[in-house]
Amino acid sequence: MSRLVTVDIDVCIGCEACVETCPEVFSMGPGDLAQVYNPDGASEDKIEEAMDTCPVNCILWED
User: Fold this and answer.
1) Domain ranges for the chain
2) What is the mean pLDDT of the chain?
3) Residues 6+ away with beta carbon under 8 Å from 36
4) In this structure, what DSSP letter does residue 29 have?
5) b/e map 42-60, b = 16+ CB within 10 Å
6) Is domain 4-62 classified as CATH 3.40.1190.10?
7) Rounded distance, CA 48 to CA 45, Å?
8) Residues 5-19: pLDDT tens digits?
9) Distance between CA atoms of 54 and 63, rounded to whole angstroms?
10) d(Cα 6, Cα 35) in Å, to the nearest integer?
11) Are strands 4-7 and 59-62 parallel, antiparallel or unpaired?
């Protein structure tokens, strides 16, 4: 089973870094916070690049 990417909206500050890095997976949702709209939209490497750009580390892998 593959991992699922999630955003902890309690930690997200709405900086849009993940959307800029990986718009195939992330978008801005309610409250101008990041959300995962297409978890299969990019490779794990590309998603991890977005994780690395997040200043508050709110993007997580869930098994």
Assistant:
1) 4-62
2) 96
3) 5, 6, 7, 25, 26
4) -
5) beeeebeebbeebeeebbe
6) no
7) 5
8) 999 999 999 999 999
9) 20
10) 8
11) antiparallel
